[in-house]
Amino acid sequence: MIEDIIKAVLQKLNQKYTNELRCLFIPDENFSSIESLLKVDSKEVRTIGIWGMGGIGKTTLAAAIFQKVSSIYEGSCFLENVTEESKRHGLSYTYNRLLSKLLGEDLGIETPKVISSMVMKRLKRMKAFIVLDDVHTLELLENLIGVGHDCLGAGSRVIVTTRDKHVLIGGGINEIHQVKEMNSQNSIRLFSLNAFKKIIPDEGYEEISNNVVSYSKGNPLALKVLGSFLRAKSKKEWDSALNKLKETPNAEIQKVLRLSYDELDDREKDIFLDIACFFKGCGSRSRITEILNACGFFADIGIRNLLDKALVTITPANDIKMHDLIQEMGRQIVREESIKNPGKRSRLWNAGEIYDVLTNNNVRMICTLTCFLKNMFLYITATYH
Questions:
Q1: Do residues 317 and 226 both lie within one domain?
Q2: Residues near 296 by Cβ (< 8 Å), separated by ≥ 6?
Q3: For residues 103 and 100, what is the distance between their CA atoms, to the nearest angstrom?
Q4: Are residues 67 and 85 located together in one domain of the fold?
């Protein structure tokens, strides 16, 4: 009986006191926008999707919101890396973790598809705050919070972070926020906090810090990784690291960015690599689609999937764009086909490498270049059609 009383009191204490955010975070317009979408005073069940490219700060934003508002709810739960955890331990394990956090006990449910009416009644009576981080599939989302989110109590809030917008649209999420890149002022602050442990660079490091920030293009992961890597290093070492980045991108950043690419099918990968190597900023969506369709890539649906996974964007003028770090990731994938021999790669875009391959009479690469020239011919034809 005493143990039961202690558990009940501790649960109430956990709800009374706010959580602590144990990561570097700078509130910006993304934070303000998501906070406004919550509408915490509304009694309806609201779901908010946080969507964007890898490393753009989706999880950190969700954690900051959770830290600020979760204490006002009867039950709260932050499940990080939901997809990875479900693959490793099974869906039932993840669902039981969610319920145990909300209801304060391990219910041992064998499948989310069948739960007792008593558990459903308890959930529907509870005003809950839930964060499901990194959800990759619609099925996973529906299993965790129900089709139509009908198992949640009045006033509940659910935040879902994902790199795939289709999951949010198919899951009936009320509001979708695409995370924007950090502005230059906040970028230098975040980088400096990681590199110098203060919000401004050390004297003499201002210009080179701005170069790193420019390279990162507002991506918080890149700012944190590079800031931590360069901490306590000399200016000469900083220069060397920046020059190296031009040839060899940072592996830790690349690993995160590549997750979305790895989920593409073979034709979608071809489309992505062609845009990264050749077509970024080189024409309208319709023209590039026509070229890629001529290569048998089913580009209409392929480009749609790249958009949903935040690998490309469309400008107001209908041009296809791509974040510089994502383009760098795509080109690095092609380089890795043959690090030391460009003639064995599927694509070439560097004029020096193309000249070198042709002057060395590399037959295999001449075949590859023939395919490239064919693509360029199709592009020119489409342009002047």
A1: no
A2: 267
A3: 5
A4: yes
Domain that holds residue 35: 2-178
Q: Which residue has the tokens 């030391």?
A: 340
Domains held by the chain: number: 3
Please tell me whether residue 58 adopts helix, strand or coil conformation: helix
Distance separating alpha carbons of residues 227 and 192, to the nearest angstrom: 7
Shared domain for 316 and 167, answered yes or no, is no
Q: Look at strands 313-314 and 320-321 and give their pairing.
A: antiparallel
Judge whether residue 369 has pLDDT over 80: no
pLDDT exceeds cutoff 80 at 42: yes
pLDDT over threshold 90, residue 205: yes
Categorize the per-residue pLDDT at 81 as very low, low, confident or very high, splitting at 50, 70 and 90.
very high
Q: Which two tokens stand for residue 234?
A: 């000399």
Q: Which DSSP letter does residue 202 get?
A: P
Q: Give, to the nearest 10 degrees, the angle between helix 235-247 and helix 220-230.
A: 140
Question: Is the pLDDT assigned to residue 379 strictly greater than 60?
Answer: no
Considering the domain architecture, whether residues 53 and 167 belong to the same structural domain is answered as yes
What are the DSSP E strand ranges found in the chain?
A: 46-51, 75-79, 128-132, 157-162, 175-178, 313-314, 320-321
- In terms of domains, do 202 and 293 share one? no
The contacts of residue 45 (CB under 8 Å, 6+ apart) are 149, 152, 153, 154, 155, 156, 157, 158
Q: Which of these, 89, 80, 95, lies nearest to 133 by C-alpha position?
A: 80
Specify burial of residue 296 (Cβ count, 10 A radius: 0-12, 13-18, 19+): exposed
Q: Same domain for 305 and 363? A: yes
384 Cβ contact list (under 8 Å, min separation 6): none
Answer whether residue 286 shows pLDDT above 60.
yes
Are 181 and 56 in contact, with CB atoms under 8 Å apart?
yes
Question: What digits encode the pLDDT tens for the residues 46-77?
Answer: 999 999 999 999 999 999 999 999 988 988 99
Task: Give pLDDT tens digits for 184-199.
Answer: 999 999 999 999 999 9
14 pLDDT exceeds 70? no
CB–CB of 324/217 below 8 Å?
A: yes
CATH assignment of the domain containing 20: 3.40.50.300
